[in-house]
């Protein structure tokens, strides 16, 4: 039987290893940075929560970029929770950064999604900041080399995806490239999923146009390359999350690589999310596995999807309650040019899991 000092030593070692496993997303704790804190001096970098030493160094040499990175952390948190609001796992794990719940520390498909979204979001936010002029270090994206169709012309200010990818990957991948950053398998998994996130971001570049012409005839369109909104990128990643591939870390040739667990006759595809550990069902609270359970979660009685009361409540049943809503109604347009509305109250029935 182990002595008390041995047990304490083992516990401290376990906590240290868990901390290292998800060091790559600790920077998401920047979402809690007070809005009044301005990072304009190098000594401010040490005050930022969740940064590893290599990120602190990047902060010191790229002070102007930090406001955008803090904004990206807030976007990840908001977008993740909104994307999974209709599922048992609703991205609650991200609330406790930098001390994340075990579901993000164990190499689950949930951590695969969070790493992919984080990598996409930081590059997305930087690319957009170049366009809006919030960063002096960069400007609009390059004008495309291909010739547009008749009636179209390149112009405007496209999102600077190249700069976003370069600086975003440098910051978000820095923790996984440190010597003490968890197991080799977890490093490979996180780096792979981060790259998938950036790949989805690159595929989200589309042509956007603005019309010109007499009386809105749209005889000429000025066009540029712009990114889709982050919420659309998150939905693409959610689809990949639902079809993610479980992998194992095993020798392939002269080194160990990640290979699909059940179909190891093929290599891992570049566009698929991968995970090492199976997830809990998230039905009941289990602190060891990082599940907060679905008790008191709102469900949809008429839905057949993941937000249905049967699936969300895991068969435990649900309780109804009523809620009064005050809405604008009977709106009238007055010439010219304002609208007046009345306020109407209605009662709706809601349901929460037992």
Q: What's the arrangement of secondary structure elements?
A:
Layout: H1 4-21, H2 53-61, H3 63-83, H4 102-105, H5 109-132, E1 152-154, H6 161-172, H7 184-203, E2 205-212, E3 220-227, H8 230-242, E4 245-252, E5 255-260, E6 274-275, E7 285-286, E8 291-292, E9 298-299, H9 309-312, E10 318-334, E11 338-353
Parallel strand pairs: 1-3, 4-6
Antiparallel strand pairs: 2-3, 4-5, 7-8, 9-11, 10-11
Helix pairs in contact: 3-5, 3-8, 5-6, 5-7, 5-8
GO molecular function: cytokine activity; frizzled binding
Signal peptide: 1-24
Main location: secreted
Instruction: Give the C-alpha Rg.
Output: 24 Å
Domain tally: 2
Structural class: alpha+beta
Series of H and E elements:
HHHHHEHHEEHEEEEEEHEE
Task: Report how far apart the termini are.
Answer: 41 Å
Q: What is the averaged pLDDT score?
A: 87
In this structure, how is the largest beta sheet organized?
A: 3 strands, mixed
| Share of helical residues | 25-40%
The total of helices stands at 9
The share of residues in extended strands comes to 15-25%
Low-confidence stretches: 4-21
| Beta strand count | 11
- The coarse silhouette is globular
Instruction: Strand order, main sheet: write it out.
Output: 1-3-2
Tell me what you see in this structure:
This protein has 354 residues and is of the alpha+beta class. The chain contains 9 helices and 11 strands. The chain has 2 domains: 290 residues, no CATH class; 49 residues, Endo-n-acetylneuraminidase fold, CATH 3.30.2460. The strands form 4 sheets. It has a 3-stranded mixed β-sheet. Strands 5-4-6 form a 3-stranded mixed β-sheet. Helix 3 packs across helix 8 and helix 5 packs antiparallel against helix 8. The two termini are 41 Å apart.
């Amino acid at each position: 039987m182990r002595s008390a000092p041995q047990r304490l030593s083992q516990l401290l070692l376990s906590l240290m290893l868990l901390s290292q496993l998800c060091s790559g997303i600790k920077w998401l704790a920047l979402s809690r940075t007070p809005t009044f804190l301005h990072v304009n001096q190098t000594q401010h970098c040490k005050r930022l929560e969740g940064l590893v030493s290599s990120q602190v160094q990047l902060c010191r040499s790229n002070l102007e970029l930090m406001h955008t990175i803090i904004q990206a952390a807030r976007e990840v948190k908001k977008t993740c929770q909104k994307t999974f609001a209709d599922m048992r796992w609703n991205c609650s794990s991200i609330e406790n950064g930098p001390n994340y719940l075990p579901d993000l520390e164990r190499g689950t498909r949930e951590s695969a999604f969070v790493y992919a979204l984080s990598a996409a979001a930081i590059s997305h936010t930087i690319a957009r900041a170049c366009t809006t002029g919030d960063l002096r270090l960069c400007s609009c994206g390059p004008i495309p080399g291909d010739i547009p169709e008749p009636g179209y012309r390149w112009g405007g200010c496209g999102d600077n995806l190249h700069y976003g990818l370069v600086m975003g990957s440098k910051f978000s991948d820095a923790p996984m490239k440190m010597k003490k950053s968890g197991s080799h398998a977890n490093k490979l998994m996180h780096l792979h999923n981060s790259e998938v996130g950036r790949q989805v971001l690159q595929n989200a570049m589309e042509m956007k146009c603005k019309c010109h012409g007499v009386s809105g005839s749209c005889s000429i369109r000025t066009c540029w390359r712009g990114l889709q909104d982050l919420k659309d990128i998150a939905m693409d990643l959610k689809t990949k999350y639902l079809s993610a591939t479980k992998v194992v870390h095993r020798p392939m040739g002269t080194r160990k690589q990640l290979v699909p667990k059940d179909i190891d006759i093929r290599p891992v595809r570049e566009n698929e999310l991968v995970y090492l550990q199976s997830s809990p069902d998230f039905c009941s609270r289990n602190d060891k596995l990082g599940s907060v359970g679905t008790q008191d979660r709102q469900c949809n009685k008429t839905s057949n999807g993941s937000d249905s009361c049967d699936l969300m409540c895991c068969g435990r049943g649900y309780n109804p309650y009523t809620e009064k809503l005050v809405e604008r109604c009977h709106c009238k347009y007055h010439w010219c040019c304002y609208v007046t509305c009345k306020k109407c109250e209605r009662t709706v029935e809601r349901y929460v899991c037992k």
